[in-house]
Amino acid sequence: MSSRAQQSGVTRAKLLRVARELFARHGYNDVATEEIVRRAGVTRGALYHHFRDKRDLFQAVVEQIEQEVLQKVAETALSEADPWDQQSAAIRAYLDVCLEPAVQRIVLTDAPSVLGLAAWREIEAKYGLALVEAGLRSVMEAGYIEEQPVEPLAHLVLGALTEGGLLIGRSDDRQAARTGVGDSLDRLLSGLRKK
User: Fold this and answer.
1) How far apart are CA 168 and CA 177, in angstroms?
2) Rounded distance between C-alpha atoms, residue 46 and residue 158, angstroms
3) CA trace torsion 26, 29, 35, 37 (10° rounding)
4) What is the largest CA-CA distance in the chain?
5) Is residue 86 a contact partner of residue 156, using CB atoms and an 8 Å limit?
6) How far is it, in rounded angstroms, from Cα 8 to Cα 92?
7) Tell me: the pLDDT tens digits for 97-142?
8) pTM score, two decimals?
9) Which terminus of the chain, N or C, has less C-beta within 10 A?
10) Separation between Cα atoms, residue 99 and residue 174, nearest integer Å
């Protein structure tokens, strides 16, 4: 990799890191691009070289967080041997991540309004849908739930997880909401299980 490409990568990473910290602490609307470039130690031109505008930078931060969430959930699931236990662990890991302040503020609070609900849901599906589908296939193959078309069920499960995350993120008592959502999802998925 050339030194110019390396420097470009360093600048982009710096902008993402600083923007993420500021968006998490103050929210999208209360962060000016001037503050981002000042704290990152770069020029406005550098910002606009990498991102169209503040919204584009914000979307990149959202996608970065979503990738991290996906990684954490997948690693947690794979720490279990049994497919059903993997799914339970994945759901718990996702709901636990929803308690993290940066996830709450950036992904669950600001992203739906800043990016628009359709774009936000598309990002949620981009990072979560394949993992949910793989998990459902594994529990079907293990005989825990009836064979059925995976895609519609995966969309419904992802929708339940997403709405549960929103409920947690917007609750006055997030820990209680996390417990309630977790219990409800356990009952919902247990209803799919063969008797």
Assistant:
1) 5
2) 37
3) 120
4) 62
5) no
6) 37
7) 999 999 999 999 999 999 998 999 899 889 999 999 999 999 999 9
8) 0.89
9) C
10) 7
